[in-house]
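Suppose you are handed a protein chain with no further information: no name, no annotation, nothing but its sequence. What can you learn? This example shows the usual starting point.
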Amino acid sequence: SPQQPTVFLLAYDNSENSQAALSWFARLNAERDTRHQLVIFYSVEAPPLPRGNTTLKMSKTELYTQLMQESSAQIDRVRKRCLALCQQLGLPADSVKFIDKYEAEPGKAIVAMATELDAAAILMGTRGLKRLQRTMLGSVSDYVVHHAHRPVIVVPLTDRNG
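A reasonable first move is to predict its three-dimensional structure. Written in structure tokens, the prediction is:
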């Protein structure tokens, strides 16, 4: 029976950093004879619920519905740009899947998705935060590296062209 392709999960946030990780994967995939399945995971925080008294002409429900529609449209734009980039990088369309999910904690969502897919590895870009910044701001890649039970490949932005 034909061997199932190896699944890689790419944590994508539409930044130049995650695009660098996507480019790195495309180069790796082009150098190999085997086909890999790339699942691009875009975790987004849902818009906050409207609070307090509002003097708007619309109800809180209408406002939240509008915010969710705008968020959904943004996700759709990111998906289209990302899949177009995959095509430019020569990744076969049938080997790429884009998944988006509303999640308040992207690090936890990435680890859970990798487990659900039984991904061979998690790929992600890094913003290159210094230790103090990472301590104060938190770091999704730092969380994933410490909590994933599988290899995590963190691709620095400088690797983009190299």
